[in-house]
Amino acid sequence: MSYLRNLKEKLSAEITAIPEIVQGSYYPALDGLRGIAVLMVILYHFGANRFLRPFHILINGDIGVDIFFVISGFLITTLLLKEKVQYGRISLKRFYARRALRIIPAAYVFLIIMIILASIFKYRVSASNFLASFLFYKNLPYQEEPYMGHFWSLAAEVQFYLVFPFLLRLNVNRYLVIIGSIVLLVPLISILGYYHAGFLFSNQFIQTLTKIIMYAFWKGPFIILIGSMFAVLLFKGLIKVEKANYFLSFILLIIAIVISSLSFTFYTKYVSECLSALLITWVILLNLGKHNLLSSILGSRILVKIGVISYSLYLWQQLFIGNRLRQPWITNLHDHLPAVLILVKLVSLFIIAFASYYFIELKFLKIKDKYEPGKKSKSP
């Protein structure tokens, strides 16, 4: 009873302090983790699985996106709660200015380039697909096309930003109840719906609602909410990150990647993805300023640098997805060996991504810094 009473008190208590492990302003290991995530997406899209298949190992690009989602949910919520503790309130104007400056400039440059390429090479991409990408609703049911398909994940991020920080600002405790309910119910409904539990979903309306929820699990901000929920629980003192085994977070990351792979013997749709996201959250917690095997790997200069430019890498890798080169302006490379083709794509991508980061992202990131909490600036 005392445990339940203590749990209830912590859940209902106001957040008044910043946990020690998130008092820093920068976490190199998280950039390294972003680096691993974007490399998984790139290698998956560039056809690396054709070389791994004989070894019964397959890279699942979706887990890379999920890592981005969990990091985003955790960090965004952590930064907002830190602002609330330090300054007594959350400035949504500053928050939305920061997010817009972080996401929109590079994304819109990519889309403008795609419009130019589409007009020159007659890509079969409808105006409505471009509109869905520009307005960030590409995660809604839409005609698949290869050039801007990755904007579904950006849409999920933006939709999270539009709704959940507003709820967090209103009331942290109610926010926790809402996202906790979503995190518990969405997987359960999705699992039952996927495995045709018809006796529970005989009503047509309930069937339709179940399909919407199942779709939201994949194309919505669900995974982001797992990271967000853990951030709130950390601030409320319901999660304690003690000194852990030197190898633990490394092992947890490997397990998270393996169980979400379609080649894993015991892979179970929805269950595997949900468990993987939970493990990734613990990996994040165990590497916030902690020294262990994984933090040493993630803190390497190469992985951190890849993580820093990961947004540009993610945006521009879509130009080169598939076992062949989709772009008509480099069709003369189609006949090269697959390994050579992947190498050419990687080199081309990194050149473009570095240019995108230094000439686009970095300029707007400097403006974004003016809207950080505690800094004087004009309201956006």
Question: How does this model look, in words?
Answer:
The protein has one domain. It has 16 helices and no strands. The protein is globular and about 70 Å long. The model has no long low-confidence stretch (mean pLDDT 87).
Number of helices: 16
Principal-axis shape equals globular
- Helix vs. strand class: mainly alpha
- Beta-strand segment tally: 0
Strand portion? under 5%
Please describe the structure with a list of short key phrases separated by commas or semicolons.
16 helices, 66% helix
Summarize the structure.
The protein has helices spanning 2-12, 28-45, 49-52, 61-87, 92-121, 127-134, 151-170, 172-194, 204-219, 222-235, 248-259, 271-286, 293-298, 301-308, 310-316, 338-368.
List the helices and strands and how they pair.
Elements: H1 2-12, H2 28-45, H3 49-52, H4 61-87, H5 92-121, H6 127-134, H7 151-170, H8 172-194, H9 204-219, H10 222-235, H11 248-259, H12 271-286, H13 293-298, H14 301-308, H15 310-316, H16 338-368
